Amino acid sequence: MGERRGSGAPSVWDMLVFRKAYDVALEVHRIAQTFPKHEQYELASQLRRSSKSICANLAEGRARQQGSTAEFRRFVLIALGSADESALWCKFAKDLGYLSDEQFERYHGQFAEIARMLNGLVAKLNSP
Length: 128
What we know:
Number of strands: 0
Order of helices and strands: HHHH
Helix content: over 70%
Structural class: mainly alpha
Mean pLDDT: 91
Shape: elongated
């Protein structure tokens, strides 16, 4: 999956932040499937969608970067919002007893790290 596109441009899979976001989204998706049935269309769904949105926005933004750095920056900011949203849903899941303290600390830490990386990327994209 880390292959380069036909144009020779780097793939989104070459971005460390994307790979980290993908890995945690996959983990969170699996754990959210264990939430109670009544949460599958509510909290679990929100958590699955927000965590996958980080990856999706990075992928779409990376593809559009070929035409506009500003466009890529916009998608990175959306991904940043999704990282913060995912951390919030994890807090709800912990407080409702669906995640252990250890699981919460792990996922919250991963989303915080991803957010820091995305903030760094935004700063880099803002530089002349």
